[in-house]
């Protein structure tokens, strides 16, 4: 049984969003319920149950759709996050499909376990392990958390949407330190759409 979810209170964003268009909270609340169920299902793998990350792919990339949720207080910080180009072949800014297939360059849905931080070709990054059949190839596909220029707000001002990753959860350079700190090793990242 899924425990009741605290009311969502939104904390100030670290970076300004180029649009004031609000995203609906109904899908996010549903995804929070799914994330809590995933946390219970994968309780042996998830060491820290204080903070979770939720990628709400019901929302276009031009809006903050990644929530860092403090489960004790219910406070939520919403950030921009890019999806994979294989999930949006026409580059509409909307995630069209998920894939777990190597070489698909698509984002995968499901529950992820956050791993160790490292410095890679995109700078500070964090490894992810897929916990579900829908994202079981995450490590083999090198699906990680990292930053990139195409996930910065100025790209939205120029193009009306973020650029696309190769399936990774990609954040702005201004937000990556916060994401890596709040979603340290042993926590849940959950990605889906309704």
How is this fold's topology laid out?
Layout (H helix, E strand, L loop, with lengths): L8 E2 L15 H16 L9 E6 L9 E5 L4 E5 L30 E11 L2 E8 L13 E4 L5 H7 L9 E3 L4 H7 L5 E5 L2
Parallel strand pairs: 1-4, 2-9, 7-8
Antiparallel strand pairs: 2-3, 3-4, 5-6, 5-9, 6-7
3D structure, described in words:
- This protein has one domain: L,D-transpeptidase catalytic domain-like, CATH 2.40.440.10.
- The chain has three helices and nine strands, in the order E-H-E-E-E-E-E-E-H-E-H-E.
- It has helices at residues 26-41, 153-159, 176-182; strands at residues 9-10, 51-56, 66-70, 75-79, 110-120, 123-130, 144-147, 169-171, 188-192.
- A nine-stranded mixed beta sheet has the order 1-4-3-2-9-5-6-7-8.
- The protein starts with 8 loop residues before the first strand and ends with a strand.
- Mean pLDDT is 90; it is low at 1-22.
Amount of beta strand: 25-35%
Within CATH, the superfamily carries the name: L,D-transpeptidase catalytic domain-like
Stretches with pLDDT under 50, minimum 5 residues: 1-22
Number of helices, where a helix is a run of at least 4 consecutive DSSP H or I residues: 3
- The tally of beta strands, per DSSP, is 9
CATH topology: L,D-transpeptidase catalytic domain-like
Strand order of the largest sheet: 1-4-3-2-9-5-6-7-8
Outline, from the CA principal axes?
globular
Give the ordered list of helices and strands: EHEEEEEEHEHE
Mean pLDDT over the full residue set: 90
- First-last Cα distance: 20 Å
CATH class category:
Mainly Beta
Radius of gyration: 15 Å
């Amino acid at each position: 049984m899924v425990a009741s979810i605290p009311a969502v209170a939104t904390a100030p964003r670290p970076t300004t969003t180029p649009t004031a268009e609000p995203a609906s909270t109904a899908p996010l609340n549903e995804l929070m319920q799914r994330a809590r169920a995933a946390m219970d299902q994968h309780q042996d793998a998830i060491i820290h149950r204080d903070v979770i990350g939720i990628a709400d792919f019901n929302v276009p990339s031009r809006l903050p759709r990644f929530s860092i949720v403090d489960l004790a207080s219910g406070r939520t910080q919403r950030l921009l996050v890019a999806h994979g180009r294989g999930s949006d072949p026409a580059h509409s800014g909307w995630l069209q499909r998920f894939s777990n297939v190597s070489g698909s360059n698509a984002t995968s849905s499901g529950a992820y376990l956050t791993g160790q931080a490292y410095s890679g070709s995109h700078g500070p990054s964090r490894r992810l392990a897929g916990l579900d059949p829908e994202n079981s190839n995450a490590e083999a596909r090198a699906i990680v958390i990292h930053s990139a220029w195409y996930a910065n707000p100025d790209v939205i001002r120029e193009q009306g949407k973020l650029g696309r990753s190769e399936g990774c959860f990609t954040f702005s350079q201004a937000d990556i330190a916060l994401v890596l700190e709040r979603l340290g090793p042993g926590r849940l990242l959950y990605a889906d759409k309704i």
